[in-house]
């Protein structure tokens, strides 16, 4: 049995872009991944709304800091064969004032924590896979929210560079899957995934794992 930890934010938790709450379990991409991999794998979802890479959130709480909870989480679920990181979008919030390159470097910090964690089989290192988040979009209702547009436009521009910056910073250090090649965020809120994107992402992650990580 191989254990896979999916460590992410609201798009791993399963936030519905229409604001009605959480998708049913079978819709969320970690569940799709579990179904695609089948027997012999256990997929553990660890998604938290608002989770950042390494930043304490002064508005939504320090517990949103992905770095702070990562090591306890790894030790909770060890031994782990693979850890999948799907983070970075919440770092785009204006209160953090970071560039796309700095966000990629923050993900790199998390990758290094995982590699040094001794939470893999026989106290080794788990495999690490980073899903590069898709760019965010201007939501359909943005014109009705006067204060949102200026800051959102900055975040959108930064998110367009995720693919380039994550690849530049992380190539050779971990497995990389650029989600923007397969999915996009919902037009409803511009940030979260619709059910179709969850399904596609889960299947693409499974295909990558079978081809590049656990090939037997």
From TrEMBL:
It holds the Pfam family Lipase_GDSL_2. Gene3D superfamilies: SGNH hydrolase. Residues 6-198 form the SGNH hydrolase-type esterase domain. This is Lysophospholipase L1. It comes from Tepidanaerobacter syntrophicus. The lineage of its organism: Bacteria, Bacillati, Bacillota, Clostridia, Thermosediminibacterales.
């Amino acid at each position: 049995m191989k254990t896979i930890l999916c460590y992410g934010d609201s798009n791993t938790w399963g936030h519905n872009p229409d604001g009605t709450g959480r998708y049913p379990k079978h819709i969320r991409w970690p569940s799709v991944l579990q179904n695609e991999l089948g027997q012999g794998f256990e997929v553990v979802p660890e998604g938290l709304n608002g989770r950042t890479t390494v930043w304490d959130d002064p508005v939504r709480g320090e517990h949103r800091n992905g770095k702070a909870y990562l090591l306890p989480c790894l030790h909770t679920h060890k031994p782990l064969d693979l850890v999948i990181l799907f983070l970075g979008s919440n770092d785009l919030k204006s209160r953090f004032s970071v560039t796309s390159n700095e966000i990629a470097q923050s993900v790199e910090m998390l990758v290094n924590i995982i590699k040094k964690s001794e939470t893999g089989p026989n106290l080794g290192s788990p495999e690490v896979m980073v899903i590069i988040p898709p760019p965010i979009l201007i939501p359909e209702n943005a014109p009705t929210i006067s204060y949102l547009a200026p800051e959102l436009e900055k975040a959108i521009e930064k998110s367009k560079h995720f693919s380039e910056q994550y690849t530049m910073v992380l190539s050779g250090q971990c497995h990389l899957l650029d989600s923007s090649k397969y999915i996009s965020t919902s037009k409803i809120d511009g940030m979260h995934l619709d059910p179709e994107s969850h399904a596609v992402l889960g299947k693409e992650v499974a295909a990558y794992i079978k081809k590049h990580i656990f090939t037997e």
